Amino acid sequence: MLTALDDVEQTIVDTVRSFVDRDVLPVVRELEHADTYPEVLIEGMKALGIYGLLVPEKHGGSDVSMACFAAVTEELARGWMSLAGAMGGHSVVVYLLRTFGTQEQQDRFLPRLATGEIRATMVLTEPGGGSDLQAMTTTALLDGGEFVVNGTKTWITNARRAGLLALLCKTDPSAEPPHRGVSVLLVEPEHGYEVSRDLPKLGYKGVESCEVVFDDVRVPADAVLGGDEGAGFRQMMRGLEVGRIQVAARALGVGQAAMDAALRYAQERETFGKPIWQHQSVGNYLADMTTELRAARLLTFDAAHAIDGGRRADMEAGMAKLFASEVAMRIALDSVRIHGGYGYSTEFDVERYFRDAPLMIVGEGTNEILRSVIARQLVGRNRVP
Description:
By secondary structure, the protein is an alpha+beta fold. It has helices at 7-24, 28-34, 39-48, 66-79, 81-100, 103-115, 232-268, 280-308, 314-339, 350-362, 367-381, and strands spanning 120-123, 139-143, 146-157, 164-170, 182-187, 194-198, 209-220, 270-271, 274-275.
C-alpha cells in the first residue's frame, strides 16, 4: 500500500528481502566487527541486478520506479546499512548519466554500470567544506583538449573500488554566482588521481570512505557530463534528490531493524513476572517507534512517487531524509534502552544500529542544511503576492 509497486517490482523487493535474510544476516556481525569488505555479498548484489536498478532496459538494466529503488534500499539497510551505501552513490551517478549524459557517455558507461562490472561514486565533499558545495576549491581548468584537475575530496564511499567518479568541481572559478562555474566531470582511475587514505569511522563499516587527491590530473574535455560545462551544480542538485531518498530509505532499514530487535526482545524478556512490553514505559517506546517509522516511510515514498511522476522533489526528498534519519536515530537509541545492558554489548546487533544511524543525519547534506532547503522551497512555492 505504501509503495504501490506492480507485481514485477514487488518480486524484486521480495527477492532482495530473501537475499538479506538468507545471505546477509547470518554473517553481518562478524564482517562488520572486523570491518571487512563484503566481497561475496557485493557479488550477490551484482547477480541480483541491484546495481542496474535505475539503468534503462536498453542499456541492460531494470529501470524500476524510484519507489521500488527505495524499497530495495530499505531491505538492504535492514540487513546491513553498508550494503545500501555500497550502491547508493553508484545509483545517483547512474541517474545523472541517464538524465543528463550524452548518448556516447550513456552507451559507454551504463551497460557496465548495470552489471556492476564498474561501480560509480559521487565526489562532492571537501575538507572544511561539508555541505557548502558552492565553496569548493577543486578546480578543473582547460589546457588544450584536456581539463587539469587540482583539489582534494573527502568522505568518498567506495573510492578504492570505483571505476567511475562523478566529480563536482569548478571549471570557471571566476563565475558569478559561483554555481554557474561548476561542472561534473566523469573521471576514471586511469586518469591518475590518488586515493590517499581511508577515514576511520564510528559505523558504516566494511565499505571504505576515502580522501581522494587530484594533483594535475588530466581529464579529456569530453568528460563533462552531458557536454554541458557550467551546469554541474544544477545537475547534481537533481541527483541529490535521488540521493536523499536513498539515504531516507537507508534510515528506514536501520530503524526497522532496530525496532524488530526491540519488539522481539520486549516479548522474550520478563521482569516482575511479565514480558517487559507490558510495562507502560517500554510499551510507550514501541508505540512511538512504529508510529514514527510509518510516518517516515510515508514521507519517503511520497518523495519517490514525486520523482516517478516527473515532478520536482527537492523539498519532498529533503523532508523524507530529515525526518527518517532523525527517527532512525531515536529508534536505535530506544532499542538500546529496551535491551538494557545487552543493548550495549557487541554480542547484539542493536549497538551496530546505534553506530550506523548518525551517518544518515550528517550524510547527503546535514539535517541543519536540509531545514534551510525545505524552508526556502516552502517559501518559493507559496510566495505572498
